[in-house]
Amino acid sequence: xxxxxxxxxxxxxxxxxxxxxxxxxxxxxxxxxxxxxxxxxxxxxxxxxxxxxxxxxxxxxxxxxxxxxxxxxxxxxxxxxxxxxxxxxxxxxxxxxxxxxxxxxxxxxxxxxxxxxxxxxxxxxxxxxxxxxxxxxxxxxxxxxxxxxxxxxxxxxxxxxxxxxxxxxxxxxxxxxxxxxxxxxxxxxxxxxxxxxxxxxxxxxxxxxxxxxxxxxxxxxxxxxxxxxxxxxxxxxxxxxxxxxxxxxxxxxxxxxxxxxxxxxxxxxxxxxxxxxxxxxxxxxxxxxxxxxxxxxxxxxxxxxxxxxxxxxxxxxxxxxxxxxxxxxxxxxxxxxxxxxxxxxxxxxxxxxxxxxxxxxxxxxxx
Length: 367
Ligand SMILES: Nc1ncnc2c1ncn2[C@@H]1O[C@H](COP(=O)(O)OP(=O)(O)O)[C@@H](O)[C@H]1O
Ligand SMILES: [Mg+2]
Hints:
This protein is an alpha/beta fold and about 375 residues long. The protein has two domains: about 1-115 and about 295-365, P-loop containing nucleotide triphosphate hydrolases (Rossmann fold, 3-Layer(aba) Sandwich); about 120-290, Glutathione S-transferase Yfyf (Class Pi), Chain A, domain 2. The chain contains 14 helices and 15 strands. Helix 4 packs parallel to helix 10 (about 270-295) and helix 6 (about 170-210) crosses helix 10 (about 270-295). Bound molecules: adenosine-5'-diphosphate (ADP) and magnesium ion. Magnesium ion binds next to helix 1.
């Protein structure tokens, strides 16, 4: 699945850019404000149909243009695919895969499994459960093919139940069909998530001990309700509380990964520096598990590496990325910082791009 070609028109300050990336390592350097993060944003957009910097599309479109256009070619099991994408503000979204229109971002995601490590990633530990749930669900989505539909079915039933609860309509005959749907889907979701988590955990133990050896660390999957109960039991038991609240308290929408050190939540027990290293380990572990389970590499976008990690840890991250065999796009202000971090053998395969005022030049000086 490596990207073999990338064409960007009018995404932020990138007016017209064409790139032929290396299938392993891509160094991107340039001054602040030159367009490095925007380049990663373009790749992320191709893989998810959204940005990691803005919920809205409008800010991404170049100030002097009406729409942004992205085009990419990628290899998947020796077959070349193309993705074309056009966005004109909030309306006017067109996405094509191999020339055929697609209407769901999940089609993009399955073709371009993308992971990002940037300043925002470090909220994974401190942030709300949603952050850690999305982190795990990325893997579950790619590995369990019924996950997406199952989650959609569950969310729809949850919405209907919540809406009935809000309107005080708690008669059995109205709630029951939605609850039955929720029960069946919640158990399936929990099972799929647990299976993926168990595989992930094997890698977590190994990678965490390399990045940040921590005494007494425990990492557990929380399915969103009491592990001793079926979801049906939990729903029945909490009906009165849910009716008072006007929404469903427990469920698959509350799933989380609980990280503790000697029994204390990681966000309280770890320094900011240790949290960063733990996040690196989490991000590496999930890509590694993905590759092992699917036999395919994924794409890593690493934004401003030297700003986030010291020299030794940059090297550690680079080593793991090389080991996984991912296609990597990594940015920094200084070219030398990138060259210092990566092992010699890897650099021979690398491509070097210099970003200057929204223009991208392939420099080929990787040694
Ligand atoms: N919609 C837009 N149109 C034109 N330029 C933009 C738009 N949005 C942001 N920019 C500019 O794009 C430049 C590149 O930003 P960015 O990719 O974050 O740079 P870098 O990561 O290299 O520091 C910035 O100078 C920013 O002001
Ligand atoms: Mg940047």
